[in-house]
Amino acid sequence: MYTSVLSDDGQHVAISSADSTTRYHAIWLRDNAHDAETRSTHNGQRLIGLGDIPEQLSMSAVQVDDQAAHITFQPEDKTISYPIPWLLLHAYDQPAAGLHGRTANGIEPWGGELSAPRADFFDVQQNPESLRHWLANVARYGVGLLRNGPVEDQALMQVVDLFGYVRETNYGRHFEVRTEVNASNLAYTGLGLQAHTDNPYRDPVPTLQILYCLESSAAGGENMVVDGFRVAQRLRDENQEWFDVLSRYPAQFEYRGESGVCLRASHPMIELAANGELRAIHFNNRSATAFTDVPFDKMTTYYAAYRRMSELVDDASLEVSFLLQPGECFIVDNTRVLHARKAYSGTGKRWLQGCYADKDGLLSTLACLNAAA
Ligand code: FE2
Questions:
Q1: Ligand 1 center from residue 195 Cα (angstroms)
Q2: Which of 149, 153, 238, 299 could form a disulfide with 121 if both were Cys (CB 3.0 to 4.6 A apart)?
Q3: Ligand 1 centroid to residue 339 C-alpha, Å
């Protein structure tokens, strides 16, 4: 049983159930009408502009039943019905945005306790419900593993085909990560790398990365991942000023490692959305260049914050490690989860192939699978 109250000369309507009241504005409701003159019945796209809605808009009548609110707008004298579930799903009448650095709904920060979501390659390829479950975990945690895949050149493209499209770059559609470790070159090719996000010298950065193992006979060389959102929240909880300087001032990143390529971009190491939610992490010591957007008076604080963030990235209690076998791969949300390779302790070979892809395609596939479930 719902009731409604119009107020402020028909500018607001409050819709109440037994346990809650939610307010809506006339302009918001009219702009979001779903009648056939406002939205295409074929593709759902809006057919009118704001200029087609009278500026002196008001609501003159509201009737509410169990299914919908029927609202009459003036001066159009047009009545539009809004399903109650739609109104509740899109309610915006809530307290002002909370703490900066919080995560969006459905995003779960993690530390070393995470058991990285794993699935069987052929199961997710053949079973939409298994794919839906795995993609949902990738969206929630920013990381996922697949096992028992084919051990063949470019098998990683079959992983991308599960949800979207490759992002081609100057490194190609995919790139090779071959390591041969022996006593004479151990120091050069078997070194561990600090956890990082890839390619912060691009704008936009690749939002997903896949690394697929084709050969593994070297001891050590595990891959590890760290949740950058957890790192950012830890930093915020330790020192708000440090969080603020890393989210307010952009860092510069650059790559000129091959002829004909001069990539350069600026991103704050902790990127916030306009509503204060964590949007992305950009952390890559190797490609960071001189920081020129930090005010003189803030540079000392900035470097203290950067140092502490780097320590948190290296904190073993926040990392999750795994050793990929041939036919296994992992995917990371490159705007959130940092990845690294640990040092080798013996001799042998490792051969991985990597590629980039985009998260919007993954989220789109997941949303469609959810809608069909
Ligand atoms: Fe990398």
A1: 8
A2: 149
A3: 6
